[in-house]
């Protein structure tokens, strides 16, 4: 009898085809269930905004830089609808790839909720998929680091993997 493992997956956007293929290659032969979590809205604090600006400058995307400096004018309802689309797309893509998946929206600062879900579902692993967040990663304020700290504080050991969406880059 196969043991079903539960993998909690936190992503800020819809999974990209590369991400789905990576997950399929890692877990496609196992009896794993994915529970996808997408923040209802993106946390747009000062650090997150500065991180977006640094990222734009490093990639010389000056049109995007202007948009990030000006800020996002979408309403909370529009941002929540966007998150619902990302969640539905990610679950559908994982399922289409032959993986078992469900999901839920989490608060815009998802760390505490993800740790709680990991306990509730007895997650065997947590995977965080984000775009590159240079400043947050250097300052150790990224979601994966904060989740790891919270788990450690609660004396729980759950393997955690953080990779950059659409790439093979794993963040340590």
Describe this structure in words.
The chain starts with a strand and ends with a strand. Strand 5 and strand 6 form a beta hairpin. With 172 residues, it is an alpha/beta fold. The longest helix is centred in the middle third of the chain and has 21 residues. Helix 5 crosses helix 7. It is built from seven helices and six strands, in the order E-H-E-H-H-H-E-H-E-H-H-E-E. The mean pLDDT is 82. It has a single domain, classed as HUPs (Rossmann fold, 3-Layer(aba) Sandwich). The chain is globular and about 45 Å long.
Write the layout of secondary structure elements.
Elements: E1 5-11, H1 17-27, E2 32-39, H2 46-58, H3 62-70, H4 76-96, E3 100-106, H5 111-120, E4 125-130, H6 134-138, H7 143-153, E5 160-164, E6 170-171
Parallel strand pairs: 1-2, 1-4, 2-3, 4-5
Antiparallel strand pairs: 5-6
């Amino acid at each position: 009898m196969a043991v079903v493992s539960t993998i909690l997956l936190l992503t800020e956007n819809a999974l990209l085809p590369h991400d789905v293929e990576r997950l399929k290659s890692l877990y496609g032969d196992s009896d794993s269930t994915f529970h996808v979590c997408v923040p209802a809205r993106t946390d747009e604090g000062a650090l997150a905004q500065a991180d977006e600006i640094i990222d734009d400058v490093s990639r010389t995307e000056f049109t995007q830089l202007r948009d990030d400096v000006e800020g996002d004018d979408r309403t909370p309802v529009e941002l929540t609808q966007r998150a619902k689309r990302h969640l539905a797309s990610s679950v559908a893509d994982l399922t289409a790839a032959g993986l078992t998946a469900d999901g839920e929206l989490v608060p815009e600062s998802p760390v505490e909720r993800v740790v709680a879900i990991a306990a509730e579902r007895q997650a065997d692993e947590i995977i965080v998929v984000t775009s590159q967040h240079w400043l947050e990663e250097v300052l150790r304020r990224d979601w994966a680091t904060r989740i790891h700290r919270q788990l450690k504080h609660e004396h729980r050991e759950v393997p955690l993997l953080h990779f950059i969406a659409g790439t093979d880059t794993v963040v340590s």
